[in-house]
Specification:
This protein is mainly α and 106 residues long. The protein has one domain. Helix 1 packs antiparallel against helix 2 and helix 3 runs antiparallel to helix 4. It is flat, with a radius of gyration of 15 Å. 23% of the residues are buried.
């Protein structure tokens, strides 16, 4: 596995964890969770910066975005019981299709 891909996937995981911590912080009323969210997103972007040293930015950011959105949707469903409707899942599917098309074209 490519090192840039490892950085990118680590960044995605940290972004999803940051989003979960942000939700759990209840609008930063729970400050420890809010601080955890801020630290996690900072490290996530640091890893993304490392990934783009050897990957095209538009590909890395597009993959990061769609995996982060999908991961957050799945994680909030599992942890908080939040659900997406079929239109939202269609939107995520279109994002995934767009990434595949960009990868094939790039």
């Amino acid at each position: 596995m490519n090192v840039a891909l490892v950085y990118l996937l680590g960044s995605v995981v940290l972004d999803v964890l940051a989003n979960l911590a942000l939700e759990h912080s209840d609008g930063f009323r729970r400050r420890v969770w809010g601080a955890l969210a801020v630290v996690a997103i900072m490290v996530a972007f640091a890893l993304l910066a490392l990934a783009v040293q050897t990957m095209d930015l538009f590909i890395a950011y597009a993959i990061w975005g769609v995996l982060s959105i999908t991961g957050t949707a799945l994680a909030t469903w599992m942890v908080f019981g939040q659900r997406l409707n079929w239109i939202s899942w269609l939107g995520i599917s279109l994002l995934i299709l767009a990434i595949l098309l960009m990868r094939l074209g790039g």
